[in-house]
Amino acid sequence: MGLFDATQARRRQGPRGHYDMLLMVAAILLVSVGLVMIASSSIAVADGANKGAFYFLKRHTLFISLGFLCAVVAARTELKTLEKHSFLLMLMAVIMLLAVFLPVFGMRINGARRWLNLFVTSFQPVEAVKLILVVYLASYLVRHRDGVEYKLFGVVKPLLVAGMVIVLLLAQPDFGSSALVIAVTVGMIWLAGARMRNLVLLGLPLVPAIAWAAMTEDYRMKRLTSFLDPWAHPYDDGFQLTQALIAIGRGEWLGVGLGSSVQKLFYLPEAHTDFILSVIAEELGLAGVLFIIALFAVLVGRGLMLGLRGVEIGQRFAGYIAFGLSLMIGLQAIVSIGVNLGVLPTKGLTLPLISYGGSSVLLTCVMVGVLLRATFEINRAIDARAMGPRVATDGVSVPLEQGEPA
Question: Hey, which of 47, 270, 389, 399 has its CA 20 to 30 A from 214?
Answer without folding.
Answer: 270
